[in-house]
Amino acid sequence: MTQEQCTHRNNVQSSEKPQVYKVGIYGWRKRCLYFFVLLLMILILVNLALTIWILKVMNFTIDGMGNLRITEKGLKLEGDSEFLQPLYAKEIHSKPGRPLFLQSSRNVSVNIVNSNNQLLTQLVTGSSGFKARGKMFEVKSTSGKLLFSADEQEVVVGAERLRVMGAEGAVFSKSVETPHVRAEPFKELRLESPTRSLLMEAPKGIQILAEAGDIQAICRNELRLESKDGEISLDARRIRLMRLPEGKASTSSSSSGNRQTVYEVCVCPNGRLFLSQAGTGSTCQIKNSVCL
């Protein structure tokens, strides 16, 4: 290339304007980016303010939240607490010297299940009453003495006295086994079977004692006192046999003169008792229709 050509090319290049290439975001893209950045900052500030407000309202501290405190022994709740879902805990107890109060608008249920989630023991207190379900139910005193026990086989009352305050007393559909039945002081004891018979049995004897009152045995059909190996003793100053039938003595055996006012008690071969006018001899051998 000649010197003139090089000079002409340099003049052409110098006469052209230099080109500038812009780097960055301009126009509507830049405005949208600034808007989103500003919106994000506002959301961050609002979120931070809400977080601080929640921490303030819920009383979050290092030890816990509100009335809930985390201690070495577990969780500690102060004041009233409300649980909207089931509560699972190993032990629940109140402060020393303070009662434990459980309240529910419907019922309070305590369930004990095994590893297979099968119900073993259940305690339900609700508006319909108190229900307990389990193999055995026991009530003990502070000293550990058994007061009440119930299972499928028997019900045991371990207290020294069982009191029934109802006006109708106690009703037993089956047999009752007890060593002692006693009424309260200045109250009467009444054993009654309105529609069936009343049977009292004991291998060594039955003692009926009323130290300050009377004893009455009333039945509709028959009253039987039976002793298989011993005897029946009626020990009293006065024994009265009311409404015994009176036997008719024959005219030959009746004495003349004044009417007899003395009677003797006679026994028929079938065990029936009757009265007969006493004469010079026994009048019980006289045939009459009383023993029929």
TrEMBL record:
Pfam families attached to this UniProt entry: Sarcoglycan_1
GO CC annotation: cytoskeleton; sarcoglycan complex; sarcolemma
GO biological process annotation, one example: cardiac muscle tissue development
InterPro entries linked to this entry: Sarcoglycan, Sarcoglycan_gamma/delta/zeta
Topological type in the membrane: Single-pass type II membrane protein
Compartment(s) of residence: Cell membrane, Sarcolemma; Cytoplasm, Cytoskeleton
Superkingdom classification of source: Eukaryota
TM spans (from-to): 32-55
Keyword list, A-Z: Cell membrane, Cytoplasm, Cytoskeleton, Disulfide bond, Glycoprotein, Membrane, Signal-anchor, Transmembrane, Transmembrane helix
Entry annotated with the keyword Glycoprotein: yes
Alphabetical list of PANTHER family matching this protein: DELTA-SARCOGLYCAN, SARCOGLYCAN
Family: Belongs to the sarcoglycan beta/delta/gamma/zeta family.
Protein name per Swiss-Prot or TrEMBL: Delta-sarcoglycan
Organism annotation: Perca flavescens
